[in-house]
């Protein structure tokens, strides 16, 4: 059975760059998990199992393809294994925070097989874009990907 992380949680970074991961997500992700750069100016959080599966897919990309090499480098170079401390906090590296434009206010969402960590400002911008495009319009576009409900 595949994992399905869900929910939206608002948190703040502390002065040391630590973030409390929601208990519900920690329970699904496990004792340690991987945090890496995402595609939309956010960070992706994978369980170790999902991470290994994703890396296997990345490793199948042809090394002769420049785009594949560049994507793999950028994705893997930003990956950090995180183990929450006794208070459920993880440390986001300065490079991760800079990439995702995270300063203080953070939104964490469950998104199927992974969680995503967003700056509050970027998440609100993403929501506004999505609000402009109705769920019905988005669902219609999924037909192009052979996805059906």
UniProtKB/TrEMBL annotation:
Pfam families: MraZ. Keywords: Cytoplasm, DNA-binding, Repeat, Transcription, Transcription regulation. InterPro entries: MraZ, MraZ_C, MraZ_dom, MraZ_N, MraZ_sf, SpoVT-AbrB_dom, SpoVT-AbrB_sf. GO terms for molecular function: DNA-binding transcription factor activity; transcription cis-regulatory region binding. SUPFAM superfamilies: AbrB/MazE/MraZ-like. Forms oligomers. This is Transcriptional regulator MraZ. It comes from Coprococcus eutactus.
């Amino acid at each position: 059975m595949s994992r399905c992380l869900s929910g939206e949680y608002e948190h703040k970074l502390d002065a040391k760059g630590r973030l409390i991961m929601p208990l519900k997500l920690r329970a699904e992700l496990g004792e340690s998990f991987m945090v890496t750069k995402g595609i939309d100016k956010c960070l992706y959080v994978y369980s170790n199992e999902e991470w290994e599966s994703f890396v296997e897919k990345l490793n199948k990309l042809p090394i002769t393809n420049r785009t594949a090499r560049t994507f793999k480098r950028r994705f893997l170079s930003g990956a950090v294994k995180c183990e929450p401390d006794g208070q459920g906090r993880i440390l986001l590296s300065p490079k991760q925070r800079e990439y995702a434009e995270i300063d203080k206010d953070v939104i964490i969402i469950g998104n199927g097989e992974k969680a995503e960590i967003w700056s509050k400002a970027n998440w609100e911008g993403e929501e506004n874009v999505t609000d402009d495009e109705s769920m019905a319009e988005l669902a219609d576009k999924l037909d192009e990907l052979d996805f059906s409900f």
